[in-house]
Amino acid sequence: MKKIIVLAALLLSFISSFAQDGKSLYRKYSDEPNISAVYVSPAMFRLIGRIPDIQAADGDVNLTPVIQALTGLYIISSENPDINAKLSKDVKKFINSGTYELLMEAKEDGEKMTMYTCGDEKTVTSFVMLADEGSEVTFICLDGKLDRNKLEEMMSSQAK
After folding, report:
1. Domain tally for the chain?
2. CA distance 30 to 59
3. Pair 137, 78: CB distance under 8 Å
4. Does the residue 138 lie in any domain?
5. Which domain holds residue 37?
6. What is the mean pLDDT of each successive set of 10 residues along the chain, which is 160 residues long?
7. pLDDT averaged over the chain?
8. Position 1 in a domain
């Protein structure tokens, strides 16, 4: 019986090691050579969220509700050719393993940028962007519980 429990525990830990999220990708790549890495913690978002009415550059959009809803920001930017393909592959696995929906894709002269969100009709729980510029790959992941209506209102007001 103990052997079965130990085997099950090992199998479970092995399977969970394949599950990836923004934080695990950050941990995997942040110490690699020629990598720029940024992590913003929930504590920082709470601190920023206490500042009243943070406005976008043009002053028309209040960013405070969006900032207060964030729980993590992970950015990995790689100029390491050995890492770029691995990072892109891991991000694609991460996207395909969840319930992410493609928001936008842009391609130009061999460069590609894709944006995805995860959540339901009312809430966005994760936003992911992957930009592959050939010699540089950038991964950005925002986690939190963003009200989809507020996010759409903010985006539509910026589009005007």
Report:
1. 1
2. 34
3. yes
4. yes
5. 20-159
6. 36 36 89 91 78 56 71 92 92 88 89 90 90 92 86 64
7. 77
8. no
